[in-house]
Amino acid sequence: MIEAKNISKSFGTHLVLNNISVTFEQGKTNLIIGQSGSGKTVLMKCLVGLLESDSGQVIFDGRIFSEMDNKEKKLIRQEIGMLFQGGALFDYLTVEENVMFPLNMFTSKSYEEKRERVNFCLKRVNLINVEKLKPSELSGGMKKRVAIARAIAMNPKYLFCDEPNSGLDPKTSILIDNLISEITKEFQMTTVINTHDMNSVIEIGDKIAFIYNGELWWEGTNKEILNTSNKEINDFVYATKLLRKLKVNNP
């Protein structure tokens, strides 16, 4: 479980996050949604420590991350898997080397132990016989699955995903959504996903936090979001679905 308590963040005189308190639950896909500029990306960066909030606390299973020194934070970060927008694979490394990268950085395992873990992770994301390929030889969906394999290589307690379906076609997006949901439940991770994709919200939104103008405006599940009377979230859902329809009809 990850808790954000009274998180505020400003850049100069511009208040981006205003006293946000939200809990992200273990074994569930927790989605952060909101319009561009709403503050959802800043919130995620505060959660993982890429940005320091002006006030408030970030707590990982009772451990106050925001008050730790760098050495303590490093230990928490070893429990975090990150899926970056676009995958962020190293072009000059093979698939195997990309997935092995965090194991090389943070463990003293033997090469055979690391190779065994890499093979397990690649098999879990349904990739076989791709170890020696470079990212340039993979499709967009395959690259994203390699990035997921790398994100779970350290067997993380917490998984953060930034726009995991960015640049993917609708069919591949569904496959990635289902994969993230499956591994979240299988490994009982606390998964936090930053997304604009309403299909993701409807299909895998175990818990949804809607950020509006820097404030936590609405919380609920994928079943509740379609029946809420909240005007701002209804406007967001309608606009997002309409934009997606236009993109599908006019690729």
Mean pLDDT: 87
Given the helix and strand composition, which structural class is it? Answer: alpha/beta
The CATH homologous superfamily of the largest domain? P-loop containing nucleotide triphosphate hydrolases
Which CATH architecture of the largest domain? 3-Layer(aba) Sandwich
Secondary structure tally: strands? 10
Q: Main beta sheet, described?
A: 6 strands, mixed
Structurally, the number of domains stands at 2
Count of discrete alpha- or pi-helical segments spanning 4 or more residues: 8
Question: Approximately how much beta-strand content do the residues carry?
Answer: 15-25%
User: Judging from the principal axes of the Cα atoms, what is the shape?
Assistant: globular
Helix content: 25-40%
CATH topology of the largest domain: Rossmann fold
What is the radius of gyration?
Answer: 18 Å
List the secondary-structure elements in sequence, H or E: EEEHEEHEHHHEHEHEEH
Biggest sheet, spatial arrangement of strands: 6-7-8-3-9-10
> Uncertain runs with pLDDT below 50, 5 residues or more?
245-251
CATH class of the largest domain: Alpha Beta
How far the N terminus sits from the C terminus, by CA atoms, comes to 39 Å
